[in-house]
Amino acid sequence: MVAVYATHASWALSAASAATPGLSVAFLAIDFLLFASATVIHPDIRLRSLVALSLLDWLGMLALGSYAVRDVSHDWLFALLCAIAAVQLALAALARIRNSPRGFAALQLALALVTLALALPVRFDGWPLVAGWIALGLAAAAAARASALPALGWIALAILVLTQGYPRTADLGAAAQLVSALAFLAAERLHPASDDRLTPRVLLIAGVVVALVRCIGLAVPAGFATLGWVGMAFVLFAIGFALRGSRYRWGGFAVLAAAAARVLAVDLRHLSANQRILTFVVAGVLLLVISFIYTRMRAAHAGSDATHGGHQGATRVARRRSPRGEP
Question: Within a domain: residue 297?
Fold first, then answer.
């Protein structure tokens, strides 16, 4: 495979080459499909070999194919990337039919999603682009949940991060950041429960926090951003209690700490006297309210957990004492 793609690269990059984009893509497609078919003809070989073969084939077709059509038009490049994604999806389906290793089918699906994520900026911009990335990220998260493969959750995280790196995100307003935060939240909820590692979930929750901070920055006037952060911390506390996730509450504490630092570093220097007074008074009141509500919610949450645990313990004792056959 390396020899074939290296030969094609030297032919396509040669100054004396008379290869047209269509002819170059045609040769690449033949090689790509031949190597791709080899991965599903013998699915019983080692998973590491299947993964190496698929990754090299995908990278060779993606890099050399994109180079061949780069100067033709965006339509050609978009069509090429969509065709590569379609082949990867077909390979994923064939891998399931032929009982290939589960990781190999997941790899093909991941490559298809990544290829589509790369194809979207070629054709779309603005809201359609962000919506497409969010849809692909949630599809990857749902696939990770269905297959119990955490690796697809990393693909979902990588695709959703694109929504935050999009340079024109400020032009879309606060609504785009709110939708992105909800997408990160959904991806975190869909992450496989079998994955005991903290890193994927923590990064997804960090995505929720970053998207909400940017949402506040676009929705609230610059002089009142600190108040918006305090209110956002309350929202994170509520999410943490509703979903029984302590990490969201820790995210709320981090936002409160950032709000306090912003008051000292920014608000004291750049705000007028009236804005300073209003910021300090409202922020203090909100902190007192959050402290009171957080304490009450935490006590209620601990009480419900204890009651739930007591009911479960009583049920187990009753089952041990009941005669065989009785519920």
Answer: yes
